[in-house]
Amino acid sequence: MTLKINRQTIFKRCLKALCPNCGHSKIAHSWIVIHEKCPECSMPIKRGNGFYIGPICLNYGVIAFGIISPLLILGFSKMIPFAWTLSLSVLFSFTLPILFYPISWSLWLMIYYLCLPKELHENRPENSDDLLFDEDERL
Ligand SMILES: [Zn+2]
């Protein structure tokens, strides 16, 4: 079965923080509010129970291991003053999760739909009996 929306398209749409299904709408209503459903195609962005764990893990992982840990290594190895290390670590640990929030959602949607492209509503078969957009109604 060929996909209507291939992985390359999903990748490009998620890099622009657009809905991976239709590509017409941003996934975020504002910087800290992610749409429940795409305003254009109604595909759920927040797919229900536990789906929000993915962006949280990405957000935490990038900041803890990509920003704070290198800062601490620089501080403990005395490459930068330790007071700077502590100050920057505290500052970054409070501000970066907010700044990275919509990006982490977009990256999570990219990872999810690159691994499971048939879960996109446009890629589901026409005769599929699970075309309901509300994921809870499929059960
Ligand atoms: Zn959409």
3D structure, described in words:
The protein is mainly α. It has one domain (7-125). Helix content is 48%, strand content 0%. It is built from 3 helices and no strands. The protein has helices at 7-15, 53-76, 82-115. Helix 1 packs antiparallel against helix 3 (82-115) and helix 2 (53-76) runs antiparallel to helix 3. The longest helix has 34 residues, at 82-115. It is elongated, with a radius of gyration of 19 Å. The protein binds zinc ion.
Span of the ends, CA to CA: 25 Å
Work out the count of structural domains: 1
DSSP helix fraction? 40-55%
Chemical compounds bound to the protein:
zinc ion
Biggest sheet architecture: none
In angstroms, what is the radius of gyration?
Answer: 19 Å
Apparent shape:
elongated
Number of helices: 3
**What order do the helices and strands follow?**
HHH
- Derived from helix and strand composition plus strand pairing, the structural class reads mainly alpha
Q: What fraction of residues sit in β-strands? A: under 5%
Q: Total number of β-strand segments?
A: 0
Q: Which residues sit in consecutive blocks of at least 5 with pLDDT less than 50?
A: none
Mean of all residue-level pLDDT scores: 90
Output the keywords:
139 residues, elongated, binds zinc ion
Question: What's the gist of this structure?
Answer:
Helix content is 48%, strand content 0%. With 139 residues, it is an all-alpha fold.
Q: What is this structure's SSE topology?
A:
Blueprint lengths: L6 H9 L37 H24 L5 H34 L24
Helix pairs in contact: 1-3, 2-3
The site of zinc ion has 9 residues, from loops.
